[in-house]
Structures are given as structure tokens and as C-alpha cells.
Amino acid sequence: MGTRYHPGERAVQERAGLADQAAFSDGAIRTEIPDVAAVFLAERTWLAVGAVDGGGDPWCTLLGGPPGFLRASGPRTLEVDALPGAGDPLDGPLGRSPARIGILAIDPATRRRMRINGVAHPRPGGLRVTTDQVYSNCPKYIQKRVPHPVPADRRGTPAAGDRLTPAQRDLVGSADTFFIATAAPGGDADANHRGGSPGFVRVHSPGRLSWPDYAGNAMFNTLGNLWERPRAGLLFPDWGTGTVLQLTGTARIHWDGTDREVEFEVERTVSTPGAGLLSPGAPLYSKFNPPVTPAAPNGDPR
Q1: The whole model's pTM is what?
Q2: pLDDT digits (tens, 9 = 90+) for 38-48
């Protein structure tokens, strides 16, 4: 069987010197939903979703509901009984026509996560997803917490901008978790998780962020997409208030030998009160989180 990786993923794997490990991980990718995965999905109450808007910009959003709102109804069919809320950048793209979609189902309490990529077809009150890729990821860098979706009636009005406000800079700079959406040149979308100790995301200015790319399973789905199409959508949850901060912009990989840093230029922002998750208090941080290093004096992310 040939590799499921696209040219950008293979290029990053080679550049990082991890092509052999990536070839091993390739065997974990399925097109169908295994029974054990179906049970895991049915227990979820929220998930991160990545897709692109009408202009081709990636965005990441959160969808939630009671257990069972996400369920497998066939070997390659996933039902999602939720849609993005009004004013969400993915409200139109996912609610009106078929779209390539990336789904991340994650349980921070057990540090389990599963990724599903495919095509979403809108239906009344939700989505029906035909799966192309289904696979689990390692538990590294997931902070242990028990998030709960904010009740739908507490959702506020989205506020848009093109730079980070001081409060948003504080949220991003203290984050231990964010979610990232990317897309391959052919349109395939992906949603992924990034985690680390608070401060691992550096805020260099109202329009520029960076973060280190930590060692994982060597698939490089996110970086492979960025290699060929340097656009990304980020989502930062405020665990204390339930606010969600969504960003879209340009993301580029900087290399130092085989080490990697991603620099992100903010182009658009959407902040929505009550659209996310609540998990007050400090989590149990992952033992795999590397120490956070201070930014260079000149603000260079590299």
C-alpha cells in the first residue's frame, strides 16, 4: 500500500529526519471508524473542527452537545448534531454546502484524542461526515482537565478585529492549549491540538505570535499542510470564562537544524463570549511539556 501522506507532509518528515518513524505511523490511519473509536466518539460532549471559509482562510471552531451528539452511524459515516453558531466564521461554510472538514475529538481528562478528516454534508441541525482518514494521536502535551461546554443560552455576540487586544494578548500569552486548523492545497482540512506550559505561545506584538513545534508521532499533518499552504486558523479557549478567541492568518515554519518554530501573523480575529468550554482552576500539566524559554531580545521567534 502506498503512503497516505501528501507531498508537503513527506517533505517535512524528510527535513526533520523522521521519515522512517512517519512511515510506521502511517499504518495507524484508517478510512473506517473502528468499534473502539465509535464508543469513544459517542461519549464526547465537544470537539474541535477545522475548515476553510469562502475566501479559503482556515478557521477552527468548537461544537458541543450531550453525549451522543457525535456518533458513528456507519463504517465511514459520522453524525454531528451541532452547527457553528451565528457569527462564527464557519457558520456559512459548514451550514450551507458540502465542505472538507477536520475533526479533533479529545478528552483532556484521560488525555485521549482522535482525528477524523473527511467531507461534511449539512443536514437539519447538524452535519453528516463521510470519513477519509481516522486515527488516534499520542497523549503528549495534553493538560489534564475536565471541560464542560458553556450552556447555549449563554453565548454572546461575536466581536471581530484584525489585531489582538491587550486582554487577548494576555489570554494567548498564558495559554497552555490551543487548537489549529490547516488545509492542504487540494482542500483537505485538518484540526489539531497544541499544548505546553503557560508561555509556550509567545506574543511578540498585537499581530504576531510564535510557538515551538514539539516532537510527536512524526506524521506532521499540520506542518505538512503549512509547508505547501502557509495559512492557519487558531482557537484559544478561555477556560475560566468560556470565551473563545478565533484567529486566522499566515503561518510559516522556521527551522534550526531539525528543531522547528512556527510564526503566525494575525489577519482576522473573532472573540465570542460563552461559545467555548469551562474548566476553572489549574489543570494537571503534562509531564512531557518542555521548559518554556524566553523570547529572543529582538523579538525574533527563531
Answers
A1: 0.95
A2: 999 999 999 99
